[in-house]
Design brief:
about 375 residues; alpha/beta; FAD/NAD(P)-binding domain; nine-stranded mixed beta sheet; 11 helices; 17 strands; about 30% strand; globular
Length: about 375
């Protein structure tokens, strides 16, 4: 006997949106998430407006949360000019603390069974998945992997990217400070880059990615920030005019930008579990939501017999995922490689300052078009 049509592993954006979509379509859904809501996450907390039509179709329009409306972008290095552009589609700023909890309540209202537990293993035999947690095992026809950037489950699934150490560390906190409501800023420093933008309640989210080899030379986050990030005068001004709202900044390590499979062991992977775009591209949250739509729509077609077998489902998801995200990830990888080189990044940014029309075109390459709702 099956416990659900679909089991979703992980309750971040991709997992929660999938739970809402599938439940509203009348499918039996179990979502397993290890943490209670609400909780903070290390995240840039900017979402492209491309996902708004889809969220609205699910009855999950974030406007009720009063997010900030983000329409402008600026970028710098410690020695470059400040370059500015309009965001082609615009976006909104919303904290994961608020948005994830909002989606969690929507998923529960839609009928999803949300269980707080830790998944230890997933097996597939005789066309049935068995998902084992610390407490119990559940059976389903399909599974979505939405368990985030890096998990012990990835080790169990023998995923390739997990075998290599990653050099990246991410640090995030909320602040109160004087900063434009409509602006997303990306300021580079030696060994990394920092995103700055407002979220709801006039809070300023500052989230940065740093190479661990350069970070570990310093005693702590404060020492590294004052010695390295403050070399960028724009970043120094932001920090010196802001007051920390957390007891201490949050951090996560071992962030991998290596290629991942969007299908592994017959599990459809979504969000960061399927592929992580460099934060300098600023649209990982939008990609996670869009991937949830792709996976959920195809699973409904499979469960209703329109897609004849699991192999065809996996093929359809792989094609759709690559069509929508492969180019974005490639662009992000190239941009990150160029901008990590100090002299080259200064040259590029100063060059863009002379030809400002280039910047919106670069932004478009890391974002999608508004999701069409059929």
């Amino acid at each position: 006997m099956l416990d659900a049509d679909v089991i979703i592993i992980g309750g971040g954006l991709a997992g929660l949106v999938s739970a809402i979509h599938l439940s509203k379509a009348g499918k039996a859904v179990i979502l397993i998430e290890k943490d209670l809501y609400p909780h903070h996450k290390v995240c840039g907390e900017y979402i492209s407006n491309e996902v708004l039509p889809y969220l609205s179709s699910l009855g999950a329009d974030p406007a009720i949360l009063q997010p900030t409306q983000l329409t402008k972008f600026e970028m710098s290095t410690p020695t470059s000019k400040l370059i500015k552009a309009d965001l082609p589609l615009g976006g909104f700023g919303i904290s994961r603390f608020t948005f994830d909890h909002f989606l969690y309540e929507k998923a529960k209202s839609a009928g999803a069974n949300i269980i707080h537990d830790t998944v230890l293993d997933v097996t597939f035999e005789n066309e049935i998945f068995t998902v084992s947690t610390k407490e119990i095992s559940y059976r389903s026809r399909l599974v979505i992997g939405a368990h985030g950037k890096r998990s012990n489950l990835d080790v169990k699934l023998n995923r390739n990217f997990i075998k290599e150490k990653s050099a990246w560390l991410a640090i995030k906190a909320h602040y109160k400070g004087d900063f434009p409501d409509d602006l997303v800023a990306l300021h580079h420093f030696k060994g990394g880059y920092c995103g700055v933008s407002k979220v709801e309640n006039n809070l300023l989210n500052i989230c940065y990615l740093v190479n661990y080899a350069s970070f570990k030379k310093y005693k702590n986050i404060t020492a590294h920030r004052e010695e390295i990030l403050y070399q960028n005068p724009y970043l120094k001004k932001v920090f010196e005019n802001s007051t920390l709202q957390f007891e201490a900044p949050l951090s996560i390590s071992q962030i991998s930008f290596q290629r991942k499979e969007c299908v592994n062991n017959h599990i459809l992977m979504a969000g960061d579990t399927a592929g992580l775009i460099h934060p300098l591209c600023g649209n990982g949250m939008g990609m996670a939501i869009h991937a949830a739509k792709i996976a959920s729509s195809l699973m409904i077609r499979f469960l209703e017999g329109e897609i004849p077998d699991l192999e065809k489902l996996e093929q359809a998801y792989t094609i759709a995922w690559q069509d929508n995200f492969k180019s974005r990830l490639k662009t992000g990888h190239i941009l990150s490689g160029l901008l990590r080189k100090e002299k080259l990044s200064n040259f590029l940014i100063n060059g863009i300052a002379k030809f400002p029309a280039i910047l919106p075109e670069i932004i478009k390459r890391t974002h999608g078009k508004p999701i069409i709702i059929s």
